[in-house]
Design a protein that fits this description.
With 163 residues, the chain is an all-alpha fold. The chain has five helices and no strands.
């Protein structure tokens, strides 16, 4: 009985080897085909905007925000005036602004770029540029600059986002 099964077993082994070789060749061929043709490309559309980018009107910054909100003539309310904590020369926080805006024509543009890091366009009233100096909001090392939201500087800030 064992002798009569030997040819069947041998034929079965050859067949298994042939099928295995065929499968491996097919898989290898498929891998090569995919490698050559590549995977299909999925169009995801335009790149989404950077969520950290908030760029309200730069001209309004130059005309209103800088002179009324950040650098008003009243020294006690100025972020960059004498003793102000946010002048680039002696600032004590991440918000450091150039003060030579009269003679350096690019200073306001650079200040605008710095200020935009402290804005929240999705929720302007949550912008740290507003909440830090506003009384009853975030603690501010320079104290409360704006007593409440009806302060004209706060209104100017809020208008910047409503444009």
């Amino acid at each position: 009985m064992t002798a009569s099964l030997a040819p069947v077993y041998a034929r079965s082994q050859r067949m298994t080897r042939t099928i295995t070789d065929a499968c491996l060749t097919g898989v290898l061929g498929l891998v090569i085909l995919v490698g050559i043709t590549g995977c299909p490309t999925v169009d995801l559309g335009d790149a989404p905007p950077n969520p950290g980018v908030c760029r309200p009107d730069p001209q309004y910054f130059r005309d209103v925000i800088w002179p009324e909100f950040l650098a008003p003539p009243e020294i006690a309310r100025s972020c960059v005036g004498q003793g102000g904590c946010h002048a680039i020369e002696d600032g004590r926080s991440a918000l450091r602004l150039e003060t030579d805006v009269e003679t350096d024509l690019g200073a306001l543009d650079r200040n605008y770029a710095v200020v935009t890091r402290f804005l929240n366009c999705g929720s302007p009233d949550a912008s740290s540029l507003l909440t830090k100096p506003l009384a009853t909001s975030d603690p501010h090392g320079g104290g409360d600059i704006f007593p409440n939201t009806s302060d004209p500087a706060v209104t100017a800030f809020e208008t910047w986002f409503g444009m």
